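Researcher: Quick test of sequence recovery. Tokens follow.
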């Protein structure tokens, strides 16, 4: 059965248009429980989907700890009696969609998206479309004609901060191809994690710290990933440079040992 007792919003838009930031603002304002799910949008000729790999969900969950991201399928929420009784549950479904100039009518949703919604037992009560809805920001709603995608899993990786800054500057300034969109979750040796976000229409990048800081004890077991979309990308060059920017276990220990000692010295005495 569809998630009829709850609010389901479908948020569509091209890469980098501001979908996730807008979703965050709506979820923060919502007084009741919230849930988030990301669907894989359709690819078209010369337009390759960027596999988010969980970056957006991890960022939202850090900002909104009570946010529910189903471990299985969104329909798993139907098994939660508390949520079924709660009329205030808001489920937001995000989809990257290149064809911005479509209406917000349910019958005009791309068949691939509609089929996924049916299979997941989700029936949107509201469709939000960047590039169509006039109340949404449109400065970053770009019309892409050619787009390649690269997705790199960085699980367990720790970056040298200076090397990370140099790599990101090179990446968004064309050293590895014409990058139109890039985002990443990156881990630093002191336990911090940052959400890196860039779109070609912006003057600069966003470097947003996650609220949760891991203790400096080895490699944190949390999501770390890089997604790049652009034209004439150089995946080999990107991967090779990243390898040079990451800490080995030995170097990581040299950075973390003083941090642990400082933290221990700050512990209150009994």
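Model:
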């Amino acid at each position: 059965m569809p998630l009829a007792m709850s609010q389901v919003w479908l948020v569509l838009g091209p890469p980098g248009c501001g979908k996730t930031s807008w979703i965050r603002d709506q979820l923060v304002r919502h007084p009741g429980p919230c849930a988030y799910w990301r669907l894989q949008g359709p690819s078209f000729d010369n337009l390759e989907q960027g596999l988010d790999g969980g970056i957006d969900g991890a960022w939202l969950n850090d900002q909104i700890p009570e946010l529910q991201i189903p471990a299985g399928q969104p329909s798993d929420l139907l098994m939660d009696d508390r949520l079924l009784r709660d009329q205030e549950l808001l489920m937001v479904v995000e989809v990257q969609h290149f064809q911005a100039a479509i209406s917000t009518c349910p019958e005009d949703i791309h068949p691939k998206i509609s089929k996924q919604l049916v299979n997941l037992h989700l029936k949107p009560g509201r469709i939000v479309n960047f590039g169509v809805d006039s109340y949404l920001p449109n400065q970053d709603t770009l019309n892409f004609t050619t787009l390649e995608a690269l997705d790199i899993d960085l699980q367990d990786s720790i970056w040298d901060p200076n090397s990370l800054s140099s790599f990101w500057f090179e990446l968004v300034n064309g050293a590895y191809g014409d990058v139109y969109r890039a985002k990443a979750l990156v881990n630093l040796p002191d336990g911090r994690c940052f959400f890196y976000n860039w779109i070609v229409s912006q003057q600069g990048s966003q470097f947003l710290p996650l609220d949760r800081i891991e203790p400096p004890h080895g490699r944190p077991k949390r999501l770390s990933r890089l997604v790049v979309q652009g034209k004439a990308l150089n995946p080999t060059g990107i991967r090779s440079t990243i390898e040079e920017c990451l800490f080995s276990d030995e170097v990581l220990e040299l950075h973390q040992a003083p941090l642990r000692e400082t933290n221990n010295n700050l512990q209150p005495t009994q």
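Residues 149-253 form a domain with the Hypothetical Protein Yjia; Chain: A;domain 2 fold (CATH 3.30.1220.10).
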